[in-house]
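Thread title: Can someone regenerate the structure for this chain?

I was given the following input by a collaborator and told the matching structure tokens would be attached. They weren't. Posting the sequence so someone can regenerate them.
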Amino acid sequence: MAKQKHLDLLLSGNTIWNKWRRAYFDVQALEPDLHGADLHEADLRGADLHEADLSGANLQDANLQEADLQETDLRGADLRNANLSGANLFKVHLHSADLRGANLSHTYMKEADLSKADLRGIDLEGANLSKANFEGANLSGVDLNDGNLNVTSVNGKKV
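Best answer:
Regenerated them for you:
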């Protein structure tokens, strides 16, 4: 379960959250525990969530535009219809996450783990997916316009 202190700080606004992350970058703020948090429809635009544990979190309809989610654990998270446009998703862990209808346009997703994720109908226009892992992912109706798929793995094969 999410640490209440971390959840309260995040929900107090991005300015306070990001200041706290910078002030305590070498202590507990390095890897915030937001496991299983209910952040449905939360405005997390521009939030510094790098290396956070958001596994199993409800981020349905959340605004994560331009957020830093680098190396964040989002395994099993509900990101249906979330806006992640322009977010940093370098080495993000999205194994078994539900991203149906999410906007991932212009995201940096190099080396992202999207294995077994439900990606039906997502927008990946202009996304950098270099070396991403899509093994076992559902890619029905995915928009890859102008996406960079350089050396991406899909079902164990490089494409």
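The chain has one domain: 1-159.
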